[in-house]
Amino acid sequence: MKFYKIPFIWLITPFILGITSSKIVQLPLLIGFPLCVFNLLLLLFVFKTNNLITKTFIRSILLFSCFFMLGNCITTIDKMNYNSSQKKQTTNSKYFGTIQEASVTKSGYIKYIVLCKPIKQSKTTLIPSKKLLFIKNNHKNSPLNENNTIVFHCNFQQIRNLGYPGEFDSEYYWKNKEINEIGFINNESNIQLLNQGKQTYLSSTYFRKKLTEILKSVLSGQELALANALILGERNLLTKETTQGFSDTGAMHILAVSGLHIGILLQIMLRIFHFFEKWITKNQAILFSLCIVWVYALITGFSPSVIRSVIMFSFLLIGKMKGKENSELNLLAFSAFIILSWKPIYLYDIGFQLSYTAMLGIYLFYPFLKNVIISPFRIIQLIIEGTMVGIAAQITTIPLTIFYFHQFPNYFILTNIALMAFSFVILLLGILLFSFFWITPIKLILGIILQKTMTCMLVIVNFFSQLPFATAKGFSMNKLTILILYAIIGLLFISLIQKKIKLTYLALFFSFIISTHIFYVRLNNNKMNFKYIHSEYPNFQIIKSNTTNYFVFPSHSWSSNKTKRIMQDFTNLYPGKNILIPMEKLTKN
After folding, report:
1. Residues β-bridged to residue 397
2. Residues 6+ apart with CB under 8 A from 298
């Protein structure tokens, strides 16, 4: 691999450094952008020099500084727009806006993300648009959907973490989605629907609604919920148990529409068009397939992972149409540059990070892994290759998975062997169902096959998630450990590229050292002794005594979602036997 042929791998690095550096130093726009222009002019001058060494060195310095300042300036502009939208207005709690997202939470409430402005009243001013998150009681016949314009009364408060050990960082999660405030509405009279919004044929909501109705006509239960998630990217119908099962088996990437689904969809479409090669040329088949993929991206709501995948595959296939072989790593870096130029804050989004590191692992390690086991049988070989894709993705996502979620699925290899094949079959059946739903006999037959396929998939996930030691919990890492892990992964890749066995042994040695450290920390987490009492929330206490966790709550809150979440988060970081103790018992004593 010649790295000078993949320039965006190098250009994206200073660009990302520029984004992250804005947390420490923000270049004034009047200085940053003129410096970028000045660097570009110097580059033009350097290209005319005859000294190759000087030219290469100076060009590298100028390119690095130019992209560094560009990343810093774009982030500065994005932060200025974000900060101006987060100004508080204390005298007005009446808002109007458009619902951007509506989904049912695991606890049965409806979650709305609204792009809104406060209504201007006396002695108040209209502040810039901003996103707000509010929760309301779930009513079966609730008329509110995406694209609806509403007026509502709600007192918002800052999204804050409770601060207990092992807590998922909700504040960080929502901030990276440009949402800082949350409100709760219990009274229907506090919400007024102004209009339904335009349901055009180019609306993602319109498409998803129609396709979901087709799925509902032939599927039911968790099979319907799973099909809705796998095919359309809608996960709000999945139960907590189903989602937890996929999480415990390391198969959550199958539920999130991403590069895996886009790649499978492209393969399906290209193979379908191959049957019509007498009438459709190869280039026409590629163009038609790309059009279908972009429509699919529209249907699933243009999530960052889908945008990244569609952009990348589009450039890759268009390059093949022109007879040019483009580096997949270069295209991956270019798609990241496009997305981060639009929204630099996506760099800190967990889904964005996992998505890109997974694709990076596939492009780096899959070419080596796919030749480890070779079968003479075509079907078995396809299963092996699909499994190797999952392993390659896990190599580069393990550090982030452990850092954010403190756990690791032990049977992810076995799960991927089964579920990769199911993903291909399910997407194929979904395409056929949507294409022939108007022919009732074919729709019913496809529906039965799809229902049985979903059932088998759920049985497999449930089987592996119920096995002993399905998930290893209690991992704890800091950012320095993550950097060391990725340095080791980089060293391993270099050793494979250069075919130097000594570098491979060195990478494995460092892997053993850092793994020993990680497991030592995990062992300490399992056997720690401490007592946690939150100063602002005295109604709950956590006592860690060796391998036993004591949770002290008021008995009436034992079944609440907040209590269950606290226990689950804490147990992920500090595994052990959980014992509930009523607060009333301690009070009496």
Report:
1. none
2. 202, 204, 207
- Positions of E strands within 59-156: 94-104, 110-118, 130-136, 149-153
**What's the distance, CA 457 to chain centroid?**
22
Q: Is the dihedral of CA 127, 130, 135, 136 positive or negative?
A: positive
**Lookup: tokens for 286:** 């590629």
- C-alpha–C-alpha distance, residues 372 and 367, integer Å: 10
Say if strands 577-582 and 548-553 run parallel, antiparallel, or are unpaired: parallel
Per-residue pLDDT tens, the chain, 589 aa: give them.
Answer: 454 455 777 888 888 988 888 877 777 767 766 777 777 777 666 666 555 555 667 777 777 888 888 888 888 887 776 665 555 544 446 777 877 776 666 555 677 788 776 555 544 444 445 676 666 665 555 567 667 788 877 777 788 888 888 888 888 888 877 788 887 777 767 777 777 655 555 566 677 778 888 998 988 888 888 888 888 877 767 777 787 788 778 777 777 677 777 888 888 888 888 888 888 888 888 888 888 888 888 877 776 667 777 887 887 787 667 655 557 788 788 888 888 888 888 888 887 888 788 888 888 888 888 888 777 877 777 777 777 877 888 889 889 888 888 888 888 777 877 777 788 888 888 888 988 888 888 999 999 999 999 899 889 888 888 888 888 888 888 889 999 999 999 999 998 888 888 888 898 899 999 989 988 888 888 888 888 887 766 677 888 888 888 888 877 676 676 777 888 888 888 888 888 888 776 655 5
Tokens 């130097």 correspond to 500
Residue 281, SS3 per DSSP:
coil
What is the rounded CA–CA span in Å between residue 63 and residue 345?
A: 23
Nearest to 472 by CA among 550, 430, 411: 411
Report the relative pairing of strands 157-158 and 181-185 from DSSP bridges.
Answer: antiparallel
**Distances from the Cα of 133 to the Cαs of 186, 276, 294, in angstroms?**
14, 49, 29
Alpha carbon separation from 355 to 126, 258, 287, 361 (Å, rounded): 38, 7, 25, 10
What b/e sequence results for 478-502 when a residue is b if at least 16 CB atoms lie within 10 Å of its CB, and e otherwise? eeebeebbeebbebbbebbeeeeee
- Token readout for 225 is 């919920």
Q: Strand pairing partners for 183? A: 134
Chain mean position to CA 71: 22
Alpha carbons 137 and 59: distance in angstroms, whole number: 59
Q: Which residues contact 567 (CB under 8 A, 6 or more apart)?
A: 549, 551, 578
Measuring CA to CA, which residue among 125, 118, 177 is closest to residue 348?
177
Q: Taking the model in full, what pTM does it have?
A: 0.80
CB distance 126 to 145 below 8 Å: no
